[in-house]
């Protein structure tokens, strides 16, 4: 299938964000390039200006409106006008930036942004604020591709990944600084407002002037970068238009489970983030805070975001990236739900930091996975689709969230006595956003998880302690069925019935034995069953492991790779159940050994024929009379049975536990139905 990199027979570790993003030495090397360093400083200033602009303009619209609903609508309008240029002018601005001198483009657009931000507090109307915000975004659209195209002029190709990491850190890392400066300026304005009329008019004017100044500073820095000029020729083909990018990438995104999960997760994450951005100021107001508190809350989100992006991938080591993405989106959603209902601003600030951290890890992970998992010929279209969808997503959320808040208004549900529960629009919409993120995170997890059968939390805990993940196997083309049960449970009978039913389909069916199933295995089994050897329990376990390793690598794996249906009479579960019943061995330790020996090959289905301990021996064996079991033997058989049942309970989806004290055909019909559904799930036509 085109699209994803093919999964071969050897399990490859999940891509590590650090390797995709460039390691520490790369980053140091990039920063040693003087031109790039200056560019980096310029980008920091511009990003700082962007965040300050967002904070200051959002705060300003609330000051320009008196009613709660009016403020909500005004914030919604502001955020929409900030997103509109990307939808309308995106391709045009990209083409323009490729035709103009890039250094000049950046300098001119920075000066225009300076002028626009200075004009906002001077004109001081909501209408101009909206128009100026639209123009700032339109100009930024020309500036951004000029910047992106300039980086390869300054940085060697092999260091581009590290340069991009630095760009990402800078883009988000300046947000907390912007929030801190905004909070400081708002506090200064309020303090001086009583004595100096300039500060009385608007507490955010100073922030807007500061913001304007960052763009002027950026223009001065960029003017000094003489190496950046006009593009010699376009580095990539023209970007598909908005609609074209959707149709081109849609089919692929719809077909591939991993990419589908990623895209849905990213959209859900942005929807949650959009709720926080759109409602942050109103939320702070409900909890009794002002502009300063808004700055702190906003900063907390981005401290968490930057922390998550920078530290998350390192902290989580080799934890499965496909799992991590869904886990983090779900975690962000759960935390957002708590934020929505928490009545305390300080706790809310701490929690939004956690929301930011989850989102940061998810963003880096998702971005890296898209780069690593989507094949080169589809990557551009996939990214284009993701970017288009993210914009639509944000537009809808940013328009809908404040509008919904305005519609719902401010309410409280009186329960009893003094107890009233908040039911205002902000709480309800934030709660809904959080629940949506949880649903989307779980969906992404289910779509993307390639480690089915490996428990989530122990693996996460191990990764945080720096332990390697247990290896999982690639999907194979065949079907692997194990039949387990104590002596005389009817395994041979059911294996044969299953074999003849499956063989009628024309598929290759391989029947094998999980103990002594190879030439070497048979010799090992002889040793194991020879009472004169008097083996130590660990020696016994290692010999049994060698028997299983030989069996899996010589018989089962090659058959599965050919696409055969493999039925094994006994597998590692028998080994664990018998060894733990007869010797004092730790089941968990044996399971680790078994997993290593079998190359982590787990059956698609394990049929456990369950029979009460006293019934097995009563059944007439094919080669002799039924034996009379003593008390000790019965107790041992009871332990074996309990061992099997415990294993089955631990993995109910893999096991089919069958009451074996029934007629052969009845048991066979039950097994056949489940095998048929497993075959169907693997899309293996049986023709029977
Ligand atoms: N459902 C059943 N009801 C009654 N007897 C059965 C049933 N299934 C099998 N048997 C009989 O029980 C005996 C043991 O059956 P089978 O050899 O299939 O079991 P097994 O689990 O493979 O035994 P072992 O552990 O000895 O290899 C045979 O004589 C068989 O005919
Ligand atoms: C696989 C296995 C078996 N045993 C015991 C169970 C029976 O009593 C005998 C014969 O087993 P068979 O596979 O049904 O021929 O051996 C055991 O003790 N440990 C094992 O791993």
TrEMBL record:
<feature type="domain" description="Thymidylate kinase-like">
    <location>
        <begin position="483"/>
        <end position="671"/>
    </location>
</feature>
<keyword id="KW-0545">Nucleotide biosynthesis</keyword>
<feature type="region of interest" description="Disordered">
    <location>
        <begin position="1"/>
        <end position="23"/>
    </location>
</feature>
<keyword id="KW-0547">Nucleotide-binding</keyword>
<keyword id="KW-0812">Transmembrane</keyword>
<comment type="similarity">
    <text>Belongs to the thymidylate kinase family.</text>
</comment>
<feature type="transmembrane region" description="Helical">
    <location>
        <begin position="425"/>
        <end position="445"/>
    </location>
</feature>
<keyword id="KW-0472">Membrane</keyword>
<protein>
    <recommendedName>
        <fullName>Thymidylate kinase</fullName>
        <ecNumber>2.7.4.9</ecNumber>
    </recommendedName>
</protein>
<feature type="transmembrane region" description="Helical">
    <location>
        <begin position="324"/>
        <end position="342"/>
    </location>
</feature>
<keyword id="KW-1133">Transmembrane helix</keyword>
<feature type="transmembrane region" description="Helical">
    <location>
        <begin position="206"/>
        <end position="225"/>
    </location>
</feature>
<feature type="transmembrane region" description="Helical">
    <location>
        <begin position="261"/>
        <end position="286"/>
    </location>
</feature>
<feature type="transmembrane region" description="Helical">
    <location>
        <begin position="292"/>
        <end position="312"/>
    </location>
</feature>
<dbReference type="Pfam" id="PF05977">
    <property type="entry name" value="MFS_3"/>
</dbReference>
<dbReference type="GO" id="GO:0005524">
    <property type="term" value="F:ATP binding"/>
</dbReference>
<dbReference type="InterPro" id="IPR010290">
    <property type="entry name" value="TM_effector"/>
</dbReference>
<dbReference type="InterPro" id="IPR039430">
    <property type="entry name" value="Thymidylate_kin-like_dom"/>
</dbReference>
<dbReference type="GO" id="GO:0006235">
    <property type="term" value="P:dTTP biosynthetic process"/>
</dbReference>
<keyword id="KW-1003">Cell membrane</keyword>
<keyword id="KW-0067">ATP-binding</keyword>
<dbReference type="InterPro" id="IPR027417">
    <property type="entry name" value="P-loop_NTPase"/>
</dbReference>
<dbReference type="InterPro" id="IPR036259">
    <property type="entry name" value="MFS_trans_sf"/>
</dbReference>
<dbReference type="InterPro" id="IPR018094">
    <property type="entry name" value="Thymidylate_kinase"/>
</dbReference>
<dbReference type="Pfam" id="PF02223">
    <property type="entry name" value="Thymidylate_kin"/>
</dbReference>
<comment type="function">
    <text>Phosphorylation of dTMP to form dTDP in both de novo and salvage pathways of dTTP synthesis.</text>
</comment>
<dbReference type="GO" id="GO:0004798">
    <property type="term" value="F:dTMP kinase activity"/>
</dbReference>
<keyword id="KW-0813">Transport</keyword>
<keyword id="KW-0808">Transferase</keyword>
<keyword id="KW-0418">Kinase</keyword>
<feature type="transmembrane region" description="Helical">
    <location>
        <begin position="348"/>
        <end position="370"/>
    </location>
</feature>
<feature type="transmembrane region" description="Helical">
    <location>
        <begin position="73"/>
        <end position="97"/>
    </location>
</feature>
<feature type="transmembrane region" description="Helical">
    <location>
        <begin position="166"/>
        <end position="186"/>
    </location>
</feature>
<dbReference type="GO" id="GO:0006233">
    <property type="term" value="P:dTDP biosynthetic process"/>
</dbReference>
<dbReference type="GO" id="GO:0005886">
    <property type="term" value="C:plasma membrane"/>
</dbReference>
<feature type="transmembrane region" description="Helical">
    <location>
        <begin position="390"/>
        <end position="413"/>
    </location>
</feature>
């Amino acid at each position: 299938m085109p699209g994803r990199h093919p999964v071969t027979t050897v399990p490859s570790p999940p891509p590590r964000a650090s390797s995709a993003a460039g390691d520490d030495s790369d980053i140091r090397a990039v920063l040693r390039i003087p031109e790039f360093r200056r560019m980096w400083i310029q980008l920091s200033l511009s990003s700082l200006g962007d965040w300050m602009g967002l904070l200051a303009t959002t705060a300003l619209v609330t000051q320009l409106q008196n009613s709660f609903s009016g403020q909500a609508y005004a914030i919604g309008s502001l955020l929409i006008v900030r997103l509109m240029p990307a939808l309308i002018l995106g391709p045009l601005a990209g083409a323009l930036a490729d035709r103009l001198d890039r250094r000049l483009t950046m300098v001119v657009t920075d000066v225009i942004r300076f002028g626009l931000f200075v004009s906002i507090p001077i004109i001081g109307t909501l209408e101009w604020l909206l128009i100026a915000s639209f123009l700032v975004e339109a100009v930024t659209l020309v500036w951004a591709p000029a910047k992106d195209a300039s980086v390869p002029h300054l940085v060697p190709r092999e260091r581009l990944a590290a340069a991009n990491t630095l760009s990402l850190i800078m883009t988000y890392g300046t947000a907390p600084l912007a929030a801190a400066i905004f909070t400081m300026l708002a506090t200064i304005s309020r303090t001086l407002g009583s004595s100096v009329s300039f500060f009385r008019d608007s507490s955010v004017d100073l922030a807007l002037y500061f913001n304007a100044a960052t763009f002027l500073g950026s223009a001065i820095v960029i003017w000094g970068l003489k190496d950046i000029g006009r593009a010699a020729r376009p580095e990539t083909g023209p970007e598909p238009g908005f609609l074209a990018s959707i149709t081109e990438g849609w089919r692929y995104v719809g077909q591939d489970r991993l990419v589908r999960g990623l895209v849905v997760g990213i959209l859900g994450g942005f929807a949650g983030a959009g709720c926080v951005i759109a409602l942050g100021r109103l939320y702070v107001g409900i909890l009794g805070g002002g502009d300063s508190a808004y700055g702190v809350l906003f900063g907390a989100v981005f401290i968490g975001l930057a922390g998550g992006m920078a530290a998350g991938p390192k902290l989580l080591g080799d934890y499965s990236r496909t799992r991590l993405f869904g886990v983090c989106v779900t975690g962000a959603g759960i935390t957002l739900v708590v934020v929505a209902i928490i009545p305390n601003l300080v706790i809310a600030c701490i929690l939004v930091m956690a929301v930011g951290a989850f989102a940061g890890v998810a963003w880096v992970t998702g971005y890296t996975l898209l780069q690593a998992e989507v094949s080169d010929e589809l990557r551009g279209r996939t990214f284009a689709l993701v970017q288009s969808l993210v914009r639509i997503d944000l537009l809808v959320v940013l328009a809908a969230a404040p509008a919904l808040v305005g519609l719902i208004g401010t309410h409280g549900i009186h329960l009893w006595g003094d107890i009233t529960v908040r039911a205002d629009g902000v709480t309800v919409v934030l709660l809904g956003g959080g629940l949506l993120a949880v649903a989307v995170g779980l969906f992404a997890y289910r779509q993307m998880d390639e480690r089915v059968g490996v428990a989530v939390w122990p693996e996460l805990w191990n990764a945080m302690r720096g332990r390697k993940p247990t290896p999982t196997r690639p999907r194979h083309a065949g079907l692997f069925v194990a039949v387990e049960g104590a002596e005389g449970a009817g395994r041979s009978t059911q294996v044969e019935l299953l074999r003849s039913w499956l063989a009628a389909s024309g598929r290759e069916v391989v029947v094998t034995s999980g103990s002594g199933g190879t030439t070497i295995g048979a010799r090992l089994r002889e040793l194991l069953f020879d009472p004169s050897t008097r083996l130590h329990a660990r020696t016994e376990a290692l010999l049994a492991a060698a028997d299983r390793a030989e069996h899996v690598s010589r018989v089962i794996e090659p058959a599965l790779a050919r696409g055969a249906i493999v039925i094994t009479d006994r597998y590692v579960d028998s080994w664990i159940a018998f060894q733990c019943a007869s010797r004092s061995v730790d089941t968990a330790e044996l399971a680790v050994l078994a997993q290593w020996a079998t190359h982590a090959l787990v059956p698609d289905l394990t049929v456990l024929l369950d029979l009460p301990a006293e019934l097995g021996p009563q059944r007439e064996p094919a080669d002799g009379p039924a034996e009379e079991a003593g008390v000790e033997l019965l107790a041992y058989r009871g332990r074996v049975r309990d061992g099997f049942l415990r294993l089955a309970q631990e993995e109910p989806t893999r096991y089919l536990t069958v009451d074996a004290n029934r007629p052969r055909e009845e048991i066979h019909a039950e097994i056949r139905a489940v095998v048929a559904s497993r075959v169907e799930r693997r899309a293996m036509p049986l023709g029977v």
